[in-house]
Amino acid sequence: MHLIILILASYLIGSLPAALIIGKVFYGIDIRKHGSFNPGATNSIRVLGKKAGIAVLLLDVGKGALAASLPYLLMVDVNPLYTGLIAVIGHCFPIFAGFRGGKAIATTAGTLLVASPALFLIAYFAFFAVIFVTKYVFIGSISVGITIFLYALFSPNIQHDWLFFLFLLLLIFLHRSNIINFIHRQEPKINDKNIKKDRINPKKIV
Question: Where are the alpha helices (DSSP H) in 74-198?
């Protein structure tokens, strides 16, 4: 029973669509209809501005951290990585937003901060290092999945490493449009001055 509660609670926590809520409540905007159409922090910064984007980022990180904390809070012997990853699935496929969610990176960061700070440092060092070298954010995002899978594969403290391979496949699936654009040389780099801006200067409604 405790396990079922953990799974449902973690998924529902992850399903809270921070970008969608902030966009609609404070700006009267569906973030999924602007910019990259992705309800995440990066697109929120691009469309709504830095303050909204930072708020979305903190909330998405918080979702992963809260879900990963549930085994401690409920005193259940479950690896917090697992409940955190369930929240990540909820973030990517949220029941409260028609299963159209984000791309996992911020919620994964929150999960690792609680479940494995060392892995968080390793994974997100790889994230920023890969972006610095390649100038492509999506490659950095996929590198997080690769790092976590390799860590799980060689760590004696983590069982079911196949779950983390599935997580890597999930990241690849979520970034499939970026991969296709990259193959066709249409994926913009972070320093591309020709990236189309979609800032719509929304007015706060509260």
Answer: 80-92, 105-115, 117-134, 137-154, 161-174, 176-183
Residue among 4, 44, 1, 50 at smallest CA distance from 25: 44
Say what the pTM is. Answer: 0.87
- Residue-wise pLDDT for 111-155, tens only, equals 999 999 999 999 999 999 999 999 999 999 999 999 999 998 888
Tell me how crowded residue 73 is: count the other CB atoms within 10 A of its CB.
9
The answer to whether residues 80 and 9 touch, using CB atoms and an 8 Å cutoff, is no
Alpha-carbon dihedral sign for residues 197, 53, 201, 36 = positive
Q: Each residue of 67-103: pLDDT tens digit?
A: 999 999 988 999 899 999 999 999 999 999 999 999 9
Report which of 129, 111, 131 is spatially closest to residue 120, judged by C-alpha positions: 111
CB–CB of 35/43 below 8 Å?
yes
Whole-number Å distance between alpha carbons of 1 and 193: 53
